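quick one before i forget lol
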Amino acid sequence: MKVSKAQAAMEFLMTYGWAILVTLVALGSLIYFNAFNPKGVLPDQCVMFAGFGCSHPYAAPVGASVFFKFTFQNALGYTMENYQVTTTVAGVPPTSVFGIPYAPFSMEKCDPPVSPNLQQDAAVTCGYRILNPSTYGIVSGSVIKGEIAVAWTDLADQQRKRSGTFSITIQ
C-alpha cells in the first residue's frame, strides 16, 4: 500500500491541529481576561531596611488628588532621634509656580503627629497627597512607585540614612 505525501500532511494536521487550536483558544482566553497584567497579580508593597518596618500601603483618589499612606515602625532596638522621612514618587518632579517652589506632592498628616524622636517599637502612620495626578499619568487603577528615605541620629550620635521602595495600586 502506497501512502502519498498529501495524505501524510493531512493526517499530521488532523492529529496535531486540534492541540494547536486548543492552545490558541486557551491563550486567547487568558489574554482576554487580562491574566498577564502584573497589576492584578502583584500586591501593594513597601520594602524598607532591616529594623525599620513599613506596612499597610494604601492609595485612593480623593477629589482632584491622590492620597496614599504607610505605617512605619521602629524595630531597631533604640529610639531614633531627630528622624525624618522623605518620600518621592517616580514621575512626579518638584516644580515651581510663578517662580515660587511648589511640590505637587506633599506630606498630609501623621498619626500620632510627628515628633523629633521615634521611640523603640513605636509605629506612626503617615499620609501623602499628590495634587493633579492626571498631569503625571496617575489615574485610578495605575501603580505609583517611589522611594522612602529615612535619616536619624543613633545612640552614638552618628547620622544614619537608609532607604526603601514602595509600589501601590490606586484603588
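fyi Residues 95-101 have pLDDT under 50 and may be disordered.
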